[in-house]
């Protein structure tokens, strides 16, 4: 049981770190303008220098929503980690980690909404680019989505022994 708790804890810490990286890094999409590679994410568009990501005025609320949900997912993931540690030392024997599991599933939902908004609105290539594909930040966000779901379910099922 101790090994299972340690494993879940390590995966949860890895998920928090990957969420930070995927939200901060501007490599959600990568393309080429014929001369050099261009990448963009939630915040900036980068080639040799980085500038503020410019989107159509109709897509601005969608970008802000994706940014907000990714930040919320980080916050909920950290709160779930702190709650797990607190419940580990205060929870009675035989009780389940319901609060931690619920918070982790809220984090999972925030990741789902944030990445889905980005997928629906911003995976088209920017004007002037020859080709584009998903970058590592986008893929990390979907991996965090899967990890958060699995961890959330495990917390709900797991009993303190």
From TrEMBL:
It is a multi-pass membrane protein. The keyword Cell cycle does not apply. One of its GO terms (cellular component) is plasma membrane. Keywords: Glycoprotein, Membrane, Transmembrane, Transmembrane helix. Its main location: membrane. It is found in: Membrane. The keyword Transmembrane applies. The chain crosses the membrane at residues 7-30, 65-85, 97-118, 138-158. PANTHER family: EPITHELIAL MEMBRANE PROTEIN 1 (PTHR10671:SF6), EPITHELIAL MEMBRANE PROTEIN-RELATED (PTHR10671). Belongs to the PMP-22/EMP/MP20 family. This is Epithelial membrane protein 1. It comes from Odontophorus gujanensis (marbled wood quail). The gene is Emp1.
């Amino acid at each position: 049981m101790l090994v299972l708790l340690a494993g879940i804890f390590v995966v949860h810490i890895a998920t928090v770190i990957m969420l930070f990286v995927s939200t901060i890094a501007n490599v959600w999409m990568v393309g080429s303008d014929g001369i050099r590679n261009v990448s963009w994410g939630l915040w900036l568009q980068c080639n040799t220098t980085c500038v503020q990501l410019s989107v159509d005025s109709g897509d601005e609320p969608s970008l802000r929503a994706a940014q907000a949900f990714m930040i919320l997912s980080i916050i909920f993931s950290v709160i779930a980690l702190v709650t797990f540690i607190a419940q580990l030392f205060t929870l009675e024997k035989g009780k389940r980690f319901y609060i931690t599991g619920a918070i982790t599933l809220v984090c999972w939902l925030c990741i789902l909404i944030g990445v889905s908004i980005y997928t629906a609105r911003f995976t088209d290539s920017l004007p002037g680019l020859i080709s584009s594909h998903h970058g590592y930040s986008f893929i990390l966000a979907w991996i965090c989505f899967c990890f958060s779901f699995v961890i959330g379910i495990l917390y709900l099922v797991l009993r303190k022994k």
